[in-house]
Design goal:
The complex is a heterotrimer of chains A (510), B (286) and C (343). With 510 residues, chain A is of the alpha/beta class. Chain A is built from 15 helices and 20 strands. Helix content of chain A is 36%, strand content 15%. Chain A has a seven-stranded mixed sheet with strand order 14-15-16-13-12-17-18, with helices on both faces. Chain A has a six-stranded mixed sheet with strand order 9-8-7-10-11-19, sandwiched between helices. Chain A has a three-stranded mixed sheet with strand order 1-5-4, with no helix packed on it. In chain A, helix 3 packs across helix 4, helix 4 runs parallel beside helix 5 and helix 9 packs across helix 10. In chain A, 60% of the residues are buried. With 286 residues, chain B is of the alpha/beta class. In chain B, 43% of the residues lie in helices and 21% in strands. In chain B, the strands form four sheets. A five-stranded parallel sheet of chain B has the order 10-9-8-11-12, sandwiched between helices. By secondary structure, chain C is an alpha/beta fold. In chain C, strand 1, helix 5 and strand 2 form a beta-alpha-beta unit. The longest helix of chain C is centred in the C-terminal third of the chain and has 18 residues. Classes of the chains: A alpha/beta (510), B alpha/beta (286), C alpha/beta (343). Chains in contact: A-B, A-C, B-C. Strand 18 of chain A pairs parallel with strand 13 of chain B, so a sheet runs across the interface.
Amino acid sequence: MTFLEYAPAPESKAILKLKPEYGLFIDGKFISGHGKPFQTISPSTEDPIATISCANEQDVDVAVSAARRSYEHIWSRLNGAVRGKYLFRIARLIQERSRELAVAESWDNGKPIKESRDVDIPLVAAWFFYYAGWADKLDYAGLGADPQPFGVAAQVIPWNFPLLMLAWKIAPALAAGNTVVLKPAETTPLTALLFAEILEQADMPPGVVNIITGAGETGRLLVNHPDVNKVAFTGSTAVGREIARAVSGTHKKLTLELGGKGANIVFEDAPIDQAVEGIVNGIFFNQGHVCCAGSRLIVQESIHDDLIERLKSRLSTLRLGDPLDKNTDIGAINSPAQLERIKALSSAGEVEGATRWSADCVMPAKGFWFPPTIFTNVSTSHSVARDEIFGPVLSVLTFRTPAEAIAKANNTPYGLSAGIWTDKGSRILAVADELRAGVVWANTFNRFDPSSPFGGYKESGYGREGGRHGLLAYLKSGAPATFKRSEKQVPTSASPVKAIRRSRMTKRVV
Amino acid sequence: MSHMMIPKTYKLYINGTFVRSESGRSYQVFDKNHVFVANVAMASRKDARDAVVAARSAFSSWSGASAYNRGQVLYRIAEILEGRREQFIAEILQAEGGGRANAALQVNETIDTWVWYAGWADKYAQVAGNTNPVTGPYFNLSVTEPTGVVSVIAPKRPSLLGFASAVAPVLVSGNTVVVIASQPHPLPALSLSEVLATSDIPKGAVNILSGNPAEISPWLASHADINAIYLIGAGDLNWADLQASAAETLKRVVPPEADNDIASRSLERILAFTEIKTVWHTKSLS
Amino acid sequence: MSSREINIVTPKQDAAIAPRFNLILGDNPSTANLRRYLSGIPKVDAVGLEQRAAALSTRSIKSTSKLKSLDKIIELIDLTTLEGADTPGKIRSLAAKAIRPDPSDPSTPHVAAVCVYGDMVPYAVDSLRYFNKMRDGNSIKIAAVATAFPSGRASLNAKIVDTTEAVAAGADEIDMVIDRGAFLSGHFDQVFDQIASIKAACRRPDSTYACLKVILETGELNTYDNVREASWLAILAGADFIKTSTGKVSPAATLPMTLLMLEAVRDWYQLTGERIGVKPAGGIRNSKEAIRYLVTVAETVGEEWLQPHLFRFGASSLLNDVLLQRQKMKTGHYSGSNYVTID
């Protein structure tokens, strides 16, 4: 750029009215936690933002009790229409405070303001609007009449989309009639605490939503609390596995949204310039801190060189820097720990023989940064093709036939997302059928909508978020039998026929 | 002149063939009066491993069959059962007792269960799928797909109906299964394997192991190539450990069910072993 | 009479065109050959293209570079009048505005060109003669629309005559329209031959050529795939510029269409090292929108394209909005429509 210099964004932090310290939000009040408080910092400047309380075992217990009380005495007794109105209120308040929430999110998380402003926060509001409307229509959710909530939901969310993940968890839980104890990630608690203020503004009854902050131990205490009926977790597969182990034998209902190693398959007849955009959006959106990122580019050999050239030239126009700058395309890596992980996995890629290319970005002196990086000459056995990096690192593999593309795409323990780029409709549908992934984007990537279910196959987790299916993660069938079997009773033991109780036909089994 | 009985040796049903346990082991099955009935193969962990290999290789053909075809295949199982109902009544009666009427009712219910699920084959996806009205120029569709290879621990009793109630809903969507039959009353299930062998179900889609579930199930729960475990009949096993072991590869786990619920037929039982896949596609005239 | 028979010049005969075509396709610009080649060009996904254009629209530029951008926009404008009611007087007034867009501020640059109907060229030449003589090499160009603008519905001979006369009268640039009917009915050879013939008609006696801008009329070609194919077809046939629209059909220029055409010239540059110009025309009415085009050019083909021989805005009302913005930036307060001249 010689004369077209882009301006630093006017998005200033002046819009934020932050407190120097935040407590735990339990039973409608901010209270101090009994754990050791910690600081949340801005990953782009390393400046401290606020001091955050840490919930210990006692605090977790208080929060779960508040949620239980509120469930028994308030929330489960409200009719759906009233619950819905609370959610509508929240949606509106989020829209009204959207600028502030976007700035807070970008500051605390490091993501570019244009993403928090144009993607995260509008989706947060949309998510509450969508589930608000479900609250008085649960009979139509697909479980028969009068489905029931589970009770108290323990929810643990990650740092990559802090407020959006909160919305994905809280909106359906409340619409279904559950109460919630939610723990945001320790590096990004800010917007969850601002959300607690929004709950106060909305006059939400105390205890319906409780927000407790802390690190992994707080999360562990929460999901293991015996009075929790439902556990929902988004985060790494390693932690998801630990939670799945921990709830075994308890009858706690569990949904997990875990890691991924998404394949973005580009056929030679693809709309090439849009495919380049889709690849960029697939892996460099949110610095690649996206569980459904298209981190494996699987490209037809015949266009490999051309595509890589186009990609490199496109990446050279990406602007890395201050997340609050409206022109920033690539923000900061969320934490030093994550930066170390990205560096380590990238180094491993080089050692294993893949070819590394990074865009020529000027890195700010302070903060945590990693340039958009591509690995070519990658084979399926390389760690950069197998391990989730959760950063702006793309691994490129090639294929010759559609069958080979599908085989390579499915050759991973994960199964969250995949992309297909081709101009041929029949091939899109056939490939989409064959991919073992919960979300398949054809000629687009990384699109989200509250009405659209999201979630993984295989080690990417189970249960769905979004849409009607997302609601089912927070409901169980409450109806008596709707299916009448034959007149006679079914023996389930050798006891006389008449002694056997009729079994329910629509009982939920998960 | 009296006929001298030939006791039948029941084998495992793996990959469409009847095999002895690779371990060479068998165990004795007794009737309700503790009288010896037959020798039954006692599956080992290696038999379980072979069954998983068979189930995995059958997955693409069974899940790739048309829904209509899967419905036909399940219905065919009901038809063959109907033709052999006397044999099954006798086996149930011998194993479980409880009178002929109960045994006959169990066979009837088993047949009806296969028919009920057969009818779902080309309908459950319509009920459980959605088109989603997303914001933006996209076609967005959520469809159900089978989870993959599912291992089932069948209920001890009712020996035939429990087996069908556990296996049919898993099978109908295109999953392939490895089932551990009722340990004390395996004969109805093993006879059913003879029905399956003459039905049109692809080899390997259903694999039936007889033996000790406590011995075999941990190997299945920890097997990385299994996608889900159905603990319906595992109530008196240490199923929490099985669930914990299944967590290593994030298998879907459906916990044991109360006796009263074992013979339930439900859509949810089908959906518990399916995945929702959501496909987005751009829409434009230009 | 088939289109082949009325050809005056075939690409093979014309040194200005043959190299481009031969490089890519050998020496036979038949429809089959062209179709085969054009269909091999990657297709366009409309949703993705429009999203990219929308993303480029969110760039925000510094106020210091905004003033430079406004001047740049003026330097890239083809100030246009294409009315049935055009008169010599109207052309003189347009030329005066082209020379000195803002009489109150002599530092304002002049525009790139005036764009008029062919019969108005002599008046434009006349009005700009003195100014252009003083500005050797940095003159205001005279562009004439030709080839039965805007519909293009006339015989090839008439189109050639239209062009030849305008060039003879002193037009520096010819803005031709393609035969959209021929394109939409699949007669790619016909479109190709016409462009090539007009290119030949741009030849002056001294063997130089008037600059040929080929108007695709994107609003009538309708789909992005058509526009991408037409862009390549025009380039292969000898276009110096590809231009979106006549301004007489709605929609005229849009950012996604322009982005798409920029991608085509970028790919041509990658392939051959030759730079082709792009001219969005019609519908760009204010500075804010024009700046989005500058950003799109800079991020797609690079800033070196932001020169009058490689990028133009075809516009009439845009200039006054740019002048108002420019006054606001210089004086610090908002200006009004009576402080810029009507043209």
